[in-house]
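Exercise: predict the structure of this protein bound to zinc ion.
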Amino acid sequence: MTEAAPDVVPCRLCTEPVAHDAKICPACGVKEPWIPDEPTINPHLMRVAMWGGGVVVLGLLVFLAGLIMFGPPAEKDERDHRPPASTRESR
Ligand SMILES: [Zn+2]
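Solution:
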């Protein structure tokens, strides 16, 4: 039972138990086989991703608003463009 030892962690590639301080996995030879405790996504990158998502959502909202404001009326305008001349001449 070596995989239960505190200083042995599963390799991130082959999941074979390797020493925590091992630089190279003895089973598959990958560099730094252990996963570091600190999160892989740093806060700066997270904030950039959040801003990017916000910009994308905002752009989508503007695009949808434009579609709603300028989309349907163009079709309606063609039907209502007839001037009420006949009603004026009949009088
Ligand atoms: Zn490995």
